[in-house]
Amino acid sequence: MRPILLSGHERSLTQIKYNAEGDLLFSASKDHVINVWHSHNGERLGTYDGHNGTVWTIDVDSTSTFLVSGSADNMMKLWNVRTGECLKTWEFTTAIKRVMWSEDDSKILAVTEQRMGYKGAVRVFEINREAGATQSEEPLITITPSGSKATVAAWCALDQYIVTGHENGTLNLWDMDGELFYEKEDRAHQELITDMQMSPDGTYFITSSKDKSAKIWSVGPDKNAQGDEDYLTLIKTFTGEPPLNSAAILPGKPYIICGGGQEAMAVTTTGARHGHFEIRFWHRVFEEEVARVKGGFGPCNTVAVHPQTKGYAIGGEDGYVRVHHFDDDFFNAKPYGASLEPED
Amino acid sequence: MPALQSWADDVESHDFPPRTETTDKDGITTIVEYKLNDEGKKVKVTRKIKRTLVKSKVNHVVAERMGWTKFGAEKGHKAGPDTATTTVGENVRLKLTAGGIKKDEPEEDSHSALQAQLAGRKITCRLCQGDHYTTRCPYKDTLGEVLGGEDNPDAETSGAGALGDNPTPSEMRAAGGKYVPPSMRAGAKGAGESMNNKNRDDLPTLRVTNLSEDCTDSDLWDLFQRFGRINRIYVGKDQETGLCKGFAFVSFESRAEAEKAMGKINGLPYDHLILACSWSVPKGTVEAK
């Protein structure tokens, strides 16, 4: 594979996202700019200018009409994807760390940072798709986790619940009244949850953590060993060497992709031989590592997978987005081995 | 003449014949251009190219988005990737292994793998892992010796001997096989001064010499991959011709694998030459000596 290097950012990447068809790739970085690229040839379509701080998070709706972004300047912005025009700005008291469109594109969730006496919260806003610039100022729901602050959140089960991942490694489910619906008793991860990406059908998701593991969770209700109903069931665990910053599920192929690496600030102080900056492919079913691919020159901050499995993209601490298109070898490979290959 | 002038203006100012493009019946386009070369001489450049139109079917919304006009920082720029923001990177390898990368595999696994292989009646070449009999392997001459003498004591000692000659690796070995960062070794003056070339020199790297001119990156990947996980391969190439200059550096992930590879490759007949393989000496230590 020859990656296409996109050098539209001057600082490290924070999040990259493909749109639903996979032809556009959005990238956000610490340099305040959001870029959009044509994924097939790496051509830059445009930029979304207006934030005055690190853009922590972006998400595009399923029709590629609106883009929402959250930034360290305490603002969340709604953009017109086609023109780059900012339609609406919401102001908060702290930075926005995660945004996501709901399944039906009618709502967005925003996770705010806990800082300066303000508690972290997850807010849900209703989006009027016809109105454009006139959007409601007030959140529909405000979820205030009582314990550890939420670092990531996602819609799941056809927008029935919101799942939040926390700094201490716990996972919680919240219902649409803003009430805690299900609390996972055991901590899902030992350390901060860095990323959470849904499967295409939204019934399971993958979390990555600083505790060097990525885990796949099913959204219930499932019966557990005691016969009780369990709403978050651990399905698979992938444990590697580096702390992970991001993990994604490859649709259509039984793999997951993990990216991470030693913290950039720790590279000079630790004696580790290698920073583990490679991108790792794991077999989703066998829980075995199947490939390692050279990543960037620093830790990988964010991984995104083409929704039709044509390739993947990584955004690194080095400020580059690398877009990879899979070779024929990848599609010809027999992921279950010659004898176990399912028949078509 | 102002120093900063675009080449397009340059052409006009010299009043060259215009660029011509002709396409013949085979679809081959001939482009004739005139320009000044580095020495200030007028030269005629003739290029023959064949243009192929590749059609792909996409979703209609995707097709519509292809025609969107650029905005923001790209506003007014012409269509197509801009080399300022978009470049093509170095080739990377994605090789999916069926069995996983874990080193401590249970013993049963190899047995069951053998059984599965027999059940499927799959023929695998012992040398190159291709699907033919070992005796029919096209690489029999070159690779036969590499893997044939798996536990050849001579090869082991020659590897160890070469290792002993080199001060840097033996120093590393003294610390119980673990890599010790320069700042923590005996005689270090504190923290490292540079973080630029940290990875490259830390990895066990072999220097392969006496390679033939036709040798390419992928040839060496094929040759060395069997010994273990390779981090990178650098082939010294002539800048003008692009041909191999006769040497290459191969960085392994693990020292043991590199040592094994060195033992096998050193003295191996490859193409029409005998390869030499030794530990690569990092730049800094050469200067220090």
UniProtKB/TrEMBL annotation, chain A:
Single GO BP term: formation of cytoplasmic translation initiation complex
Compartment(s) where it occurs, according to its Swiss-Prot or TrEMBL record: Cytoplasm
Database matches in Gene3D superfamilies: YVTN repeat-like/Quinoprotein amine dehydrogenase
Keyword entries, A-Z: Cytoplasm, Initiation factor, Protein biosynthesis, Repeat, WD repeat
SMART domains: WD40 (SM00320)
WD repeats: 6-47, 48-89, 186-219
Coiled coil segments of this chain: none
Similarity field: Belongs to the WD repeat STRAP family.
Record-linked PANTHER family: EUKARYOTIC TRANSLATION INITIATION FACTOR 3 SUBUNIT I
Protein name: Eukaryotic translation initiation factor 3 subunit I
Source organism phylogeny: Eukaryota, Fungi, Dikarya, Basidiomycota, Pucciniomycotina
Gene name of this polypeptide: TIF34
UniProtKB/TrEMBL annotation, chain B:
Classification via CDD domains: eIF3G, RRM_eIF3G_like
Keyword RNA-binding: yes
Entry's Gene Ontology molecular function annotations: RNA binding; translation initiation factor activity
GO CC aspect terms: eukaryotic 43S preinitiation complex; eukaryotic 48S preinitiation complex; eukaryotic translation initiation factor 3 complex
UniProt keyword Protein biosynthesis, yes or no: yes
Localization (cell): Cytoplasm
Domain RRM: 204-282
Its job: RNA-binding component of the eukaryotic translation initiation factor 3 (eIF-3) complex, which is involved in protein synthesis of a specialized repertoire of mRNAs and, together with other initiation factors, stimulates binding of mRNA and methionyl-tRNAi to the 40S ribosome. The eIF-3 complex specifically targets and initiates translation of a subset of mRNAs involved in cell proliferation. This subunit can bind 18S rRNA.
Quaternary context: Component of the eukaryotic translation initiation factor 3 (eIF-3) complex.
Protein name per UniProt: Eukaryotic translation initiation factor 3 subunit G
UniProt organism field: Leucosporidium creatinivorum
